[in-house]
Amino acid sequence: MIRFRRVTKVYHGNVYALEDVTVDIEKKEFAFIVGPTGSGKSTFFKLILKEELPTNGEIYIADTNLSEIKKWKVPYLRRKVGCVFQDFKLLPNKTVYENVGYALEVTGRPRRIIEAYVPEVLRLVGLSHKLDSYPDELSGGEQQRVSIARAFVNRPPILLADEPTGNLDPSMSHGIVKLLEKINNTGTTVLMATHDQDIVNTFKKRVIELKEGRVVRDQLRGVYGYGS
Amino acid sequence: MAVNAFYFLREATTSMRRNMALTVAAVMVTSLSLVLLGFVGMVVHAGDGLATNLKYRVDEIRVFLKDEVTAEERDSLERFIKKMPEVKSVRFISKEEALEEFKEMYKDSPDIIEQIEGNPLPAEFKVRMKDPKYNKAVAQRLMNRPEISVDENGKKEIKFPEDVVNKVLKWTGAIQKIGFVVVVAFAIVAVSLVSITIRMAIYARRNEIGIMKLVGATNWFIRWPFIVEGVFEGITGAIVGIIVAIMIHSWLMTKVEAAAEANLISTGYLVLLSFLLILVGMIIGALGSNFALRRYIEV
Question: pTM higher than 0.80 for the full model?
């Protein structure tokens, strides 16, 4: 589903964010990307979304070479890749329902689709009772659920989560990863960047460890690090 | 697409309400530049009309006589003129007739008539040509006739009607040139003001734009509300401009038309001008939003 072939990304001519990265992530897989800040996790995601272009190497998403996707078609790529962030990125002046519906609205989906999809996905994330709440009336965990619902309402084949539990306390974090697992079980490939050792060790998923831009470990059913 | 059009319109109006003062400023400067454009258009059109209206007198030159010319000298000059093959007819207007005509022309301003002492007006021949192109040649042949009066520069007083036409055209030409520069300057200010309002609108919605990109909204979908906003400002400016231009027209031009005894600006021309102003307004709006979008929405 996601293939990196000897991908190198250099910023400003000499800053190596990723170096010679070759990774295969299969359809329906769930993988943690771990590593300290600055190890290249965010660049990894930006390359998948074609927000950045690789300096060297090739990236394939669902067997399409990203370098062959024309600029104007990038939005259609992004519809296939849902995104969740540490800071939720919800619109404060819109309700839960509107925030999730917004993702469908701005991709030009008709109202009847919005009315059918939004309640369903909010039921999936467990927020059916908060449709009309505003983001600041929700807890951090609930806000992250809304943002997951928004990322997933389009039914994308891939979901990227960049430190989704970074702002949450441990009890809520588990719930969020459980939700991602649930989404993974519907057939969506899930990629989650994190440096939450507890989470990685509890869920026993594939672990791809980045260090200074290189893949130093790729392990099925792994734990956070050899030392822990 | 119908759903989208509604969405874009709603987004645009919300955004304009949010930046009311700026929007009003942009609309005002747009309308100001369009009022100027309309004014210049009307003056130039009226000038052309005036010139055309005067054309029927274009084949006539006026030859002014010295006061001391005797009846014989006068007849001799008349015969001399009438002998020329280019001349169609000659009409003599005596000093008295000239004064009568003058009094008739200024009958509404008795103070001007009161100021006249005696009769300062010269007698004249109105010489009608078979074709206006002979004006110069005929005048040339009259240059050494002693009966014709001389102005303070020693030039024979032979008046060509083209002088009036040329003067009108020269003035409208000057207004056209200066007006064009001023209109362009104002249009540039209008475009940058529209651009600023759109920039503010983009800034106010930067989070939404980020999320729109994130969930895969196309660039055009992101751009449309801002283009609608810019074009709407341009059209509103144009409508205000048209109203003001028509007011100026009815207030000012009717006076000029009354003096010229001609309908210089037809309704058809006003309609055409209105369409032009709306078109230019739309262009101003579209350009303004285009500049803002190119600089502030990176894809």
Answer: no
